[in-house]
Amino acid sequence: MDIDLADLDFWRKPLKERHEAFARLRQQEQPVFFPEKKVPFLRSGAGFYALVRHADVVEASRNAKVFSSEPAVTNPEPPGWVKQVFGESMVNMDDPRHARLRRIVTRSFSPRMLTGLQSDIESACARIVDDLVAAGPHDFVGQVAARLPIHVICDMLDIPQEWRERVHKHVDISTAYTGVRPSLARTVQLAGQNMLALLALQRMVIKLGHERAADPKGDLVSLLVTANPDGEKLTYRELGSFFALLLVAGNETARNTMAHGLKMLTDNPAQRELLMSDFDAHIGNAIEEMVRLASPIMQFRRTVTQDYSLRGLELKKGDKVVLFYGSANRDESVFPDPDRFDITRDTKPHVGFGGPGPHFCLGANLARQELRAMYRELLTRLPGIRTIGEPELLVSNFDNSVRRQAFTF
What we know:
Largest sheet: 5 strands, mixed
Number of strands: 11
Strand order of the largest sheet: 1-2-7-4-3
Strand content: 5-15%
Radius of gyration: 21 Å
């Protein structure tokens, strides 16, 4: 086939062309294998099988014992020394190690914690729109979408105000490093910048961890470094790894969906009118439809731990598969007319927050809460807000990120 998911050129193509390519892949009898080229500073293997149908992604997500997150879920995989330097992220772990960390950090996203955040999120949305009105419309990502998630996360952890601009900068650097690489020179540059950014983020939160362990303040850092009812708590190294994950994953899901979502509302005025006719009745499902179509994190890799038959494909121990969430979310057998933005459709099966199973996104409800609050503020105060032209997308096979989006109100 004239499709190569392992090549950067594919991810430079317009979204429409990529969606058409995945539609062709979904019609194949079995998952297609894509060989990988050697990428400097990354542990590239022989290649991977692309899981592009909804049923295949769900099956692999539910069966974590066969489809392992170790040694890493990013594609290509980072080299082994990365774990030695930065510690291990829980997304790259299987049970029981993953289950232990998830038990500890789940407290951070309990209904009680999220309810307590509501007024802070609403206040942040109001301030962002105040600033937007004062400055005028320029770039929706920089002025709106990128601001709210970082603000909320920094509030949750009670990050000092003087640190927050640096946090935002380090997160943007880390995001640019994800996915495929354009050249050796650029790879070396991005790798160095990414390492320094992650180290800076970890130093910040570990410093706070020591302070909050001695003097807990009721914030998320204090919660994570003090024992839960079972006597479990994060080590400082684990805290640093979780902080980096929270800032990148927790930021990108809401940020990307918010930016793509405004474009969807602009391009589909009838759906926008329906949403505005009864915001409370429709916003919940509208957000799910935005997440489905945006698929803010486009893929994760899994390693096969034992011989396994998947849709007639005989996988061998050690084989790699990649779960393409964006393709699964456009599977015609699950979502009729899948490219259509329809806030009334049944979106429950979507995998925009990951497939069902132990690695389903912990922060899904927080992202929903942020999106609901921001769209309420925007559409109430600026009912004419709309995008202008096409978004400038990050070239990545991992992060469906909008770098810039012109808009007006």
